[in-house]
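Usage

Read records sequentially. Each one opens with the input sequence:
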Amino acid sequence: MRIALLSYRSKPHSGGQGVYVRQLSRGLAELGHEVEVFSGQPYPELDPPVSLTEVPSLDLYREPDPFRTPRPAEIRDWLDVAEVATMWTAGFPEPLTFSVRAARLLRQRAHEFDVVHDNQCLGYGLLSVRRAGIPLVATVHHPITRDRVADLAAAPWWRRPAVRRWYGFVRMQARVARRIPELITVSRASADDIAEDFRVSADRITTVPLGVDTDLFRPPDAPRTPGRIVAVASADVPLKGVRHLLEAVAKLRTERDVHLTLVSRLAEGGPTEKLIDELGIADAVNTVSGIDDTELAGLLASAEVACVPSLYEGFSLPTVEAMSCGTPLVVSRAGALPEVVGPDGGCGYLVPPGDAEALAHRLGAVLDDPALRRRLGEAGRERAQRRYSWRSVAEATVERYMASIESCRAAGDDERKR
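and closes with the structure output:
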């Protein structure tokens, strides 16, 4: 099968999008399929024989120069004008502009692919791909409506109009999702949220959990670092609940020797950095970013406990990666996290989202009990190996491709009969 896999941005080592694109494309290739990834900046890291077709944007949010103003010579067409104009007016243009650019390429090459698989873009350009007669599947990790709710709740009143404007693309995503016949998501919780927020029929959504490389993410050979807590936050936003974890760490360090390693790129001078200073825990918190999978695996395996304090997660790949490393977990009872971790006390503990006191209590209990850490870690490793593998993700995804191809063929037959 010839597969076009679309991703409007694919950070290789930060957030789940780049990991999903790399691992799924590799799994599909290992099953014998021909995969070509179409991606905007930042581009993914891919494994042979998967190929990459770059779909350049103006890259307006690149590090270290986000919200940059492009030079006049960079503007190529009306779509570039729309992209920069949307940014200047506080909107987020990439899902729309990427989908239009990708659709231009795909319409010219429609005969080369058996199926197109969109990853979380859900831009209007996809509808022209479908009109061209190419079978279409989309993965929605979770509806961005949930991010919007959390950001609006955290924003002061005077910033809320700008937050609403930023999330204006969500209306487009809901409309497009309702017109794509095959949707994939990563958890039952996320499927329920998509059906509710995007008004999509539940029978059009298939759940395919994400996978983990259990050979890379494995328990350590050396002793773990005493008192180390690791948390991974792909973005410095309220939805990730980092504020509550920092408050818990501030409480914990009055009672014991603890140290938090936070894998995240914090906004310089932003609210998280200010909170660390206000709590007086700068000596107990270390932030790292831009690390590769090998470094992340080593870090997770070195911790005595991993924490996911998010207010919502559609899946949480770092949770499964920590489980695979045999690292005990303390996570929020929010979104898909209970589904991923399993029963409370199995391979980790569930706490109410946004409750710093509960986080501190459970983290302290795990840090204080070596036998408990060993039991939780062994259960997490076993669960990761049994439930989450990229090969099974690829196999289940191919089943959805076949369903989309059959649906497209049947629609074509009906059209010819008319």
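Summary fields computed downstream for this record:
- The two ends are 29 Å apart (CA to CA).
- Residues 228-387 form a domain with the Rossmann fold fold (CATH 3.40.50.2000).
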